[in-house]
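Bug report (template v2)

What were you trying to do?
Predict the complex of my protein with cobalamin.

What happened?
Run completed; filing so the output is reviewed.

Input:
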Amino acid sequence: MPDYALMNQCIYEGKAKEVEQMTKDALAEGRHFKEVLEQGLIAGMSVVGEDFKHNILYVPEVLISARAMKAGMAVLKPLLSAHGPDTSSTGRLLMGTVRGDLHDIGKNLVCMMAEGAGFVVKDIGVDQSVEKFQAAADEFKPDIIGMSALLTTTMTYMKTVIDGCDKPPYDHIKMAIGGAPISQMFADEIGADGYGADASSAVDLFLYLVGKGPAPKAALRAGVKPTASAIAAARPANNVVKYQILYWKDLPSSVKVWDDFGEVKMDLPAKFAERIDATAQKLGLTSGDAYTAELHWGEEQSRPGTPEDVAKAIVKELDSTA
Ligand code: B12
């Protein structure tokens, strides 16, 4: 019997090679590919999804887990496609980033998490026109079309795709949207069926749209969590926190600070992201994989104070030296 608990743990820790080997071993042992998919891969990724939802894991860690799951999926893919359209799947999701937009890290993450939840996913990539979405829908027959946009200049194109799919044979397909500049208000404005603020709310939304989950609660972006006064009172006066800075190459991007009572994550001001963007483009590290490969946490350090105060102080210091 394969050690599925260990396989789940390897996905959580992002051990791609181990996941790939364990998937191969499970099949060689004669286990059904669906069992390996559900108990080995999907179960592992769902723990990652839950921890991401509760801010225990952050985007870079989830990306690393997603890569590990992808390594296992690559082994199962030929078997999955050999069995034709999977009628027992959770649903069929067609995903793409809209025309003019090359950002795909968030989209890829949503695809991996949706696969992890049992959806059959077709990802048509970045810079996709309404005609390309329609052509892919003709062939793939999705229940949901998911669109991603990261630029205020490209998000408006989502309406073009929605309008283009508001006629037979596409009008039964649910239209979901997401990306950093997107909000529920924008989704309502352009007639989308739903919006997801992050990968785990995206999966909740997709489940709802195929009638397999409850209506998602109003999507809110995770920010600095309000700290209950009871927690503040429990902190000793000489409290010490730990912190780490997230870097892209040697460029800082965000900071996380925690103690026994809570954790805070803060992004640095927009100019830091702009600098990272410019450097990534100059170096040609623009594909999702090449870009994420450069993300890493700096060493763990400590300071006196509360997570909120220390996070604010570090952001201020980095800002003043930039
Ligand atoms: C990485 C990055 C890049 C990389 C992209 C690499 C890649 N292959 O994706 C590179 C360097 C190529 C790049 C280029 C550019 N970028 Co850029 N980039 C970013 C950056 C730093 C991070 C984006 C990201 O990956 N976030 C992490 C992912 C996981 O989050 P996410 O995409 O939001 O996805 C989550 C949710 O939104 C949701 N979601 C996403 N899609 C979907 C879909 C559905 C259906 C659902 C339900 C949910 C959902 O779930 C995801 C997972 O949790 C942001 C800054 C920032 N902090 O956001 C700027 C940023 C988006 N970029 C920006 C800009 C301006 C550009 C450039 C125009 C720069 C330039 N001057 O050339 C170019 C544009 C290229 C183009 N035509 O697209 C601006 C956008 C400003 C604006 N409001 O329009 C930002 C905000 C930086 C800034 N402050 O200036 N960029």
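What did the reviewer find?
The longest strand covers residues 240-248. The pocket of cobalamin is lined by residues 59, 100-107, 109-110, 146-148, 150-152, 176-181, 196, 198-199, 202, 205, 270, 273-274, 276-277, 280-281, 286-288, 291 (CB under 6 Å).
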